[in-house]
Amino acid sequence: MVRVNTLAKYGYSVMTGLCILWLGGCSKPSTLAETCQASPEICHDLDLDATCREKREPLLALRLSIKQNPALAQQDETQFQRLQLVESYNRCLQRAAGIQHVNHPQLTSNSQRAYALTSLTLAQIQQQTKGSHNPHLAYYHWVHFGDSQALAILLQAQRNGQIKEAYILAGLATSQLKTEPDFARRLYLEALRDATPSDFVADWLLALAQVTPDREIKYLLQKTNIDLTQRKADQRMMSAELGASAEIQQQLDQQSLVLAKALSEGSYASSHWPDFLAGDKQAWLSIIKAEG
Fold it and tell me: Quick one: CA dihedral 72, 81, 112, 24, positive or negative?
């Protein structure tokens, strides 16, 4: 399913497949209580009840990994993982802390305690990573706090060709829509080219349409968004803005389905679509030919 909302998309990975990460060995796994008894420093802000277990387990696994290899803690990628995992767990605890357990009030108090402590942990990591030149961390601080220094770091990294993540490129493009529309257009085109189907956000097409001067490409982008999201639109207004013959509109309507498929299936970057959306009208014939 294609995502519609332009939420910042944070990708993180926690090392898996190593028995030592969870919990203590392959031959005889430790229980959570045993792990925390052996390493209380990695459990001090956790709720050891079943509350938010799915969010707690990858966080604890990462902390175990860092304990066994302290050098990991200095790596930007590890810091980014910590941010994501602590924040995800903290949000879950925030919801759990608001639930009053009449028969087991300790469950509520445990969640409230863990929420307060993980909030402090999260704030500490946020402070430690402020000013980082790592694109993921800079993007986090820009999106969460409107950090202008982080935005400047991102823009410089983009100019240096250091950013390949589609969600960061699209986020930067959104920030430049009103002030630098041509730059925003280039960034959206880069984001579409670099995005995997899971990265892709259909509303990027609407934003790109705003800064696309060609009426046919603008119509195609809007129509493709409709095909992907099934949202309602004023077709008569779109046709009037296109101002083309019925034959051309029919071709665009047909090709919008082809573009939607390319974006959804991951064949966009290897097709002629990037050239066409960038303004190369000759690519249109290649697209039609490829469809047979």
Answer: negative
